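dumping this here before i forget
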Amino acid sequence: TVMRECAEIQALAGRGLEGDRYCERRGYWTNVDECQVTLIAAEDLDAIARDLGVAVGNGEHRRNLVVRGIDLESLSGQRFRVGAAAFAFDRPRPPCSYIAALTDRRMTKALWGRGGICARVVTSGVIRRGDALSVGADVPAT
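structure:
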């Protein structure tokens, strides 16, 4: 599946992002090791491109949301919001060797230690390009 950038997307509670291969139950890791939503730090992508010369600017990292200015690991045990959707931290998302077969043979190594996180969608809502990630009391607990 080709990754594509979206100006906005609907997050669906308990499922993932509308149109995503895992939300539609057809991803490579479906029923094995799947994530509803994956997030990665733009700073890590900048470093990968700069230091390793691995292309990550067009979604080759295969993560759903790119965020800037937050340490994603600090969200462990937290609930957070992006746009109108609420999420719960699930786990770190280390890269797999399958990603190298889809993109660049160096991608697994490039993402090691900076592969982002998995999150569960707690509350459905629209996410738009440029929406802030916030952690706080307004994020639902269920």
